[in-house]
Amino acid sequence: MTRIKCCGMTRVEDAVLAAELGADAIGIVLTARSKRQVSLLQASAIVAALPPFVTTVALCMDDEASFVQDVIDTVRPSLLQFHGEESDEWCAQFGHPYLKAIAMGAGAAALYQLRDHPHAAGLLLDGHGLGEAGGSGKAFDWSLMPHGMKQPLILAGGLTSANVAAAIRIARPWAVDVSSGIESAPGVKDRVKVREFIAAVRGAE
Ligand SMILES: O=C(O)c1ccccc1N[C@@H]1O[C@H](COP(=O)(O)O)[C@@H](O)[C@H]1O
């Protein structure tokens, strides 16, 4: 079964709806690098509203360590997601499980980064370039998705209900991650698009 993470939630009702429709994980963006940034208070409200067995993921990007610690202490997410140029040692300092995003914008030349994060609970391959923010709807060549790695691999970048079945067939990821593909505006999720995305993932299996 391909797990589904719906990211970039800014409203409690969108997060609850996505969980009810079958999302396995809900992502909340804390970094100021994003147009979907929420406050610690908003993020805590989203986490508190979710039912048990839904994983919560708090996304940071090249933020100060003290800010990340505040996120852990206040929001209490299941996982962190580091989306910038953070090193393995830096990400591991918090003793909190995390995903590390890999910028795949450079194509095959970007794959070297997969070896650099042995402490990550999973690696999230996104379509943007190194140093750029995610949530941009940029896809990468799904045939570059590696196989046989120890860490679970999460496919992200430009996924929609129209392309996610093909993406799963080609990349065979452990999970898919979507943000702009289920939105009507940045940070505002569209009920129909969320439903169609989850149905498309389930239909691909
Ligand atoms: O969503 C954002 O605004 C964001 C900002 C900075 C870093 C990462 C961000 N989002 C991540 O990118 C993926 C893919 O987004 P999309 O589906 O291409 O729009 C998203 O799920 C987040 O993990």
UniProtKB/TrEMBL annotation:
<feature type="domain" description="N-(5'phosphoribosyl) anthranilate isomerase (PRAI)">
    <location>
        <begin position="5"/>
        <end position="199"/>
    </location>
</feature>
<dbReference type="InterPro" id="IPR044643">
    <property type="entry name" value="TrpF_fam"/>
</dbReference>
<keyword id="KW-0413">Isomerase</keyword>
<dbReference type="GO" id="GO:0004640">
    <property type="term" value="F:phosphoribosylanthranilate isomerase activity"/>
</dbReference>
<comment type="similarity">
    <text>Belongs to the TrpF family.</text>
</comment>
<dbReference type="InterPro" id="IPR001240">
    <property type="entry name" value="PRAI_dom"/>
</dbReference>
<keyword id="KW-0028">Amino-acid biosynthesis</keyword>
<keyword id="KW-0057">Aromatic amino acid biosynthesis</keyword>
<dbReference type="InterPro" id="IPR011060">
    <property type="entry name" value="RibuloseP-bd_barrel"/>
</dbReference>
<protein>
    <recommendedName>
        <fullName>N-(5'-phosphoribosyl)anthranilate isomerase</fullName>
        <ecNumber>5.3.1.24</ecNumber>
    </recommendedName>
</protein>
<comment type="pathway">
    <text>Amino-acid biosynthesis; L-tryptophan biosynthesis; L-tryptophan from chorismate: step 3/5.</text>
</comment>
<keyword id="KW-0822">Tryptophan biosynthesis</keyword>
<dbReference type="InterPro" id="IPR013785">
    <property type="entry name" value="Aldolase_TIM"/>
</dbReference>
<dbReference type="Pfam" id="PF00697">
    <property type="entry name" value="PRAI"/>
</dbReference>
